[in-house]
Design goal:
With 257 residues, the chain is of the alpha/beta class. It is built from 4 helices and 28 strands.
């Protein structure tokens, strides 16, 4: 299943069910899992691990050395899970000594011209629309949708089930379950449509909405709002997730509208 015009390093480990197109370059110490398709002109650089049933479209570059000037050739990795799609010309860079690896989970759709920089941690079932750019050491949790041209600042954290407006500059952490956008970025409400689609109950959504009313509409600062939430909102997994996100944010979370 390897095209005669592909260039594959002899040390690469490619499952026999994977498909490698013409003019693909696969470097040393690469592993590609069952059912993965690598289309023409894509490049898979050294020390990359790609799971099962991924699809890498033409001219994508996966696992290139980072653009961080502190990188001096140390052994680092790019780790990619199963069922991911990387559209045309997207780029993923391997880690630096800071984290040692760039990690992308399962079931992500990374559209054309997107970039995932060194040491990023991307979770599962995210959609990064065209031209979305993640700077170094960004954390993107699960089931988020980032609109086209979203720019995420280095070290930022984007929570689960978030939807971010296209063209947004993400300069602060974005807590889970919210809509975010405008310039400068701010909280624009709850991602209620996305939560319904993901099977959240009306009770769960109302609890989340109550938490964000306290965080953004009570007039309290973040520390006071967290205390109010802990006092008044019944304990749940979603409540704890939001509170822990806010309390552990070194950059601070986005402001209210």
């Amino acid at each position: 299943m390897i095209h005669a015009l592909a260039c594959v390093h002899p040390n690469a480990k490619i499952d026999e069910t994977a498909q490698i197109g013409p003019f693909v370059f696969i470097d040393d110490d690469v592993e590609i899992g069952a059912g993965t398709v690598v289309d023409a002109n894509a490049t898979i650089c050294a020390h990359t691990r790609i799971g099962k049933n991924c699809h890498i479209f033409p001219s994508a570059v996966i696992g290139a050395v980072p653009q961080d000037l502190k990188f001096h050739g140390e052994l680092t990795y790019t780790i990619i899970g199963d069922n991911n799609v990387f559209r045309e010309c997207c780029t993923v860079h391997r880690g630096t000594a800071s984290m040692g690896k760039t990690v992308i989970g399962d079931g992500n759709l990374i559209m054309a011209y997107c970039h995932v920089a060194h040491d990023c941690s991307v979770g599962n079932h995210n959609i990064m629309s065209n031209l979305t750019q993640l700077a170094g050491e960004v954390v993107l949790d699960d089931c988020a949708v980032l609109g086209g041209g979203t720019l995420v600042h280095q070290f930022s954290h984007v929570g689960s089930y978030v939807m971010i407006q296209g063209g947004t500059k993400v300069l602060k952490d974005v807590p889970p379950y919210v809509l975010a956008g405008r310039d400068p970025i701010c909280y624009c409400g709850l991602n209620s449509v996305g939560l319904h689609r993901r099977g959240f109950s009306e009770e769960q959504i109302e609890s989340i909405h109550m938490i964000y009313r306290i965080l953004y509409q009570s007039g309290l600062n973040m520390s006071q709002a967290v205390e109010r939430i802990l006092e008044t909102v019944p304990e749940s997994e979603t409540r704890n997730q939001i509170v822990n996100f806010v309390k552990s944010s070194p950059r601070g979370v986005i402001r209210g509208h």
